């Protein structure tokens, strides 16, 4: 195993220093280190973050390997500065058995670019009728702790209650896609002024807020853990604030796109901007940003949702919802939050690692800590070229935009997965 000496890097909240990485861990931290056998990386001007952790990634394998594979998605993640991703269960077959989650987990190990932590489905086939084998998935080699029917809402309150009760035994968490299905039938975009003008069926904010309100009450009632996926409205923030003030065990995520883009993008009728939940208003974006800074929203999660060209480059009404996120998330966070590195580390690494129970991740470099970290050049600017992305899909909403910040290197347990901004394998 090669040792690496990272020279003159800025740790979060500290003065430039050197890091020596050896045998998978951070061996030494301090100015003026030397090691004859180490490969030296001049990191002047770079920031060292704990490796990013994504609570919400769609890797599409098994079933839609044309859109993404565990390997291609892992490479996109590493290039985005991630060292761990949680893979959503809406694959084909659905990840609702120990067999499927173990398959995804093994594929992640084989790719060896990030730790792939499978999420298990809450209900069999995501059909919302019967609980899946949550215990068997938790006991499997994949050690599943997060369960989600993402893509679908666990709409039946009795099933949701039973799922919350069930996962308490192993400190699991239910990650809810909050969408009251009866309020979003045929919905194409956010319900508001723009949808009225365009004549597209609206997805009202209340369809999200009503489910979050119900679920925080259920979580409180049974004393279990709830995580809310892709929060998108100002009203949801108020419900979460209220629940947290009451001590409910609820955490929440926001995506980069909901922090940056608004429903006005739909005016282009470009389906790249079609996503679930839909892009909302500028007032919602402002509320989400404030909630993220304040901690009412705990983490940024990408909801990286690759789709094949034929599912995306078609009429708006027929296009699948979802956009890529892994390779651009840090740049969007930097744009939205500014160079508040401690806040970025908190929202994109430390807190998501804690929610997922990934004990080797989300740790700032210190002697003996697993060397999961990423080096960022905050001054670099790059133009996003969809064809140059590592993802197998091209549905980025940032095509040809100039973004600030670039991942220079990522280390997974001391081994580089990215060097000089390029994937190592
Ligand atoms: N976000 C999306 O618009 N799509 C996701 C499903 C989801 O996250 O709900 C997908 O799987 O494509
Ligand atoms: Zn979802
Ligand atoms: Zn999703």
What hetero molecules are in the model? N-carbamoyl-L-aspartate, zinc ion
Shape: globular
Percentage of β-strand residues: 15-25%
CATH superfamily of the largest domain: Metal-dependent hydrolases
Q: What's the CATH topology label of the largest domain? A: TIM Barrel
Characterize the main sheet. Answer: 9 strands, mixed
Q: Tell me the count of domains.
A: 2
N-to-C terminal Cα separation, in Å? 16 Å
Q: What Rg do the Cα atoms give?
A: 21 Å
Identify low-pLDDT runs.
none
Q: How many β strands by DSSP?
A: 19
CATH architecture of the largest domain: Alpha-Beta Barrel
Q: Briefly, what CATH class of the largest domain?
A: Alpha Beta
User: Which whole number gives the mean pLDDT?
Assistant: 98
Fraction in helix: 25-40%
Structural class: alpha/beta
SS summary, helix count: 12
What can you see in these coordinates?
This protein has 425 residues and is α/β, with parallel strands linked by helices. It has two domains: 3-47 and 367-423, Urease, subunit C, domain 1 (Roll); 50-356, TIM Barrel, CATH 3.20.20. It is built from twelve helices and 19 strands. It has helices spanning 70-79, 98-111, 134-139, 157-167, 193-198, 205-222, 234-245, 256-260, 282-294, 309-312, 329-337, 341-356, and strands at residues 3-11, 17-22, 25-30, 38-42, 47-50, 52-57, 82-87, 115-118, 146-147, 173-176, 189-190, 202-203, 226-228, 250-254, 299-300, 373-383, 402-412, 415-419, 422-423. Helix 4 packs across helix 6 (205-222) and helix 6 (205-222) runs parallel beside helix 7. It starts with a strand and ends with a strand.
């Amino acid at each position: 195993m090669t040792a690496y000496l990272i020279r003159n890097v800025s740790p979060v909240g500290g003065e430039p220093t050197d890091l020596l990485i050896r045998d998978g861990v951070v061996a030494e931290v301090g100015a003026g280190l030397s090691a004859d056998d180490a490969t030296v990386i001049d990191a002047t001007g770079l920031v060292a973050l704990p490796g990013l952790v994504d609570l919400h990634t769609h890797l599409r394998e098994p079933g839609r390997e044309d859109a993404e594979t565990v390997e291609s998605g892992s490479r996109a993640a590493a290039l985005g500065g991630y060292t761990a991703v949680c893979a959503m269960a809406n694959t084909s077959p659905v990840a609702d058995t120990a067999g499927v989650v173990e398959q995804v987990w093994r594929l992640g190990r084989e790719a060896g670019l990030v730790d792939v932590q499978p999420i298990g489905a809450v209900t069999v086939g995501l059909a919302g009728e019967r609980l899946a084998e949550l215990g068997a998935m938790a006991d499997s080699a994949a050690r599943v702790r997060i369960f989600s029917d993402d893509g679908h809402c666990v709409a039946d309150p009795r099933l949701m209650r039973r799922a919350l009760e069930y996962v308490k035994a192993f400190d699991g968490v239910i990650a809810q896609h909050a969408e009251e299905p009866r309020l979003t039938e045929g919905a194409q975009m956010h319900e508001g002024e723009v949808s009225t003008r365009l004549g597209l069926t609206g997805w009202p904010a209340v369809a999200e807020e009503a489910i979050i309100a119900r679920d925080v009450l259920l979580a409180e009632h049974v004393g279990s853990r709830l995580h809310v996926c892709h929060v998108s409205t100002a009203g949801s923030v108020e419900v979460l604030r209220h629940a947290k003030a009451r001590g409910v065990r609820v955490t929440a995520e926001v995506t980069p796109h909901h922090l940056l883009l608004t429903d006005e993008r739909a005016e282009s009728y470009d389906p790249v901007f079609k996503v679930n939940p839909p892009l909302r208003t500028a007032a919602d974006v402002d509320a989400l940003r404030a909630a993220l800074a304040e901690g009412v929203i705990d983490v940024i999660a990408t909801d990286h949702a690759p789709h094949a060209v034929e599912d995306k480059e078609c009429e708006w009404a027929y296009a699948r919802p979802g956009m890529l996120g892994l390779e651009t998330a840090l740049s969007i966070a930097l744009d939205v939050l500014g160079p508040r590195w401690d806040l970025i580390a908190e929202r994109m690494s430390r807190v998501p690692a804690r929610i997922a129970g990934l004990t080797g991740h989300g740790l700032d470099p210190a002697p003996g800590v697993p060397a999961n970290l990423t080096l960022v050049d905050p001054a670099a600017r790059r133009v996003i070229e969809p064809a140059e992305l590592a993802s197998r899909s091209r549905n980025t909403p940032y095509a040809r935009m100039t973004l600030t910040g670039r991942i220079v290197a990522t280390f997974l347990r001391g081994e580089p997965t990215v060097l000089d901004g390029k994937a190592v394998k």
